[in-house]
Amino acid sequence: MEIVLVLIPLSLILLAVAVMIFRWAVRNGQYDDLDGPAHRILFDDDLAEHPEKRDSRAGKEADGAPRADNTD
Fold it and tell me: Is the pTM of this model over 0.90?
């Protein structure tokens, strides 16, 4: 029965520490964007970094003229 006198204060101290850690995480933005990293992997970052690749995939050169190999 004496162990209860030790376990109750110990559990209250651990609870207070857990609440303080949770409050710190919320204040520092740890839970702000949970879906962003999961969706970011679906987007192709190469096209944003190299606009000439984006233009050539659309069938145009970087200056806006049609490609020479286009035989329409």
Answer: no
